[in-house]
């Protein structure tokens, strides 16, 4: 089935800049769709319209077939994990408390939350006994991104939105994070929409790649092998 559908979506910012002119695009359930294209072509805008951090000017967005264009944005965000480049962990909260953010909002009981936090830290390769009580400033860049991924996955959202998630990590650490992430998301079956300017990353991680040009124009939508050949 279709996880997310953009139908003739357009975004004009208040200053008049047309970030996305008329985009129609579908993300299939359980796939990782990578959005690539030059800086300023509308990738982040597109991603952020999916969870309404950016309000589309016109067009429709459907989530699992449901029209969410005008749905409650807070409810929508709880159904989608979101990971960005500088992950924005809460600095005065421990790793465990950061990962527990959404479960606490959803009022899970303490046992379930604690068990989930430990499971997720294991999943992203951080030993809970070592990391749960640390604060973000006590972590490396790569470890912070891992915590960001764990936090985004805490409530097992069907959809994960990622905007340059590994961009701030050094090249060696990035490779490792990418392959671990590939394993995690296959294991969980999460649908992922990944924004990157790094074609290599898109090819390594993507089931399909959407190539955008300025104004959010969809130039190509293909599997990695076809994109490499083009
Ligand atoms: P990308 O993620 O591909 O780099 P963006 O979606 O960030 O592209 O930006 C697309 C276009 O929209 C760019 O021309 C950018 O300058 C513009 N833009 C992005 N955010 C805003 C904003 N908040 N206000 C006005 N223009 C914006
Ligand atoms: P508090 O830590 O005071 O209970 P928070 O609401 O800040 O309150 O923490 C949210 C949740 O984070 C806790 O209920 C717990 O489930 C989880 N948590 C906190 N510390 C740990 C830890 N060391 N290991 C695993 N989970 C933890």
TrEMBL record:
<protein>
    <recommendedName>
        <fullName>ABC-type quaternary amine transporter</fullName>
        <ecNumber>7.6.2.9</ecNumber>
    </recommendedName>
</protein>
<keyword id="KW-0813">Transport</keyword>
<dbReference type="GO" id="GO:0005524">
    <property type="term" value="F:ATP binding"/>
</dbReference>
<comment type="similarity">
    <text>Belongs to the ABC transporter superfamily.</text>
</comment>
<dbReference type="GO" id="GO:0016887">
    <property type="term" value="F:ATP hydrolysis activity"/>
</dbReference>
<keyword id="KW-0547">Nucleotide-binding</keyword>
<dbReference type="GO" id="GO:0015418">
    <property type="term" value="F:ABC-type quaternary ammonium compound transporting activity"/>
</dbReference>
<feature type="domain" description="ABC transporter">
    <location>
        <begin position="4"/>
        <end position="230"/>
    </location>
</feature>
<keyword id="KW-0067">ATP-binding</keyword>
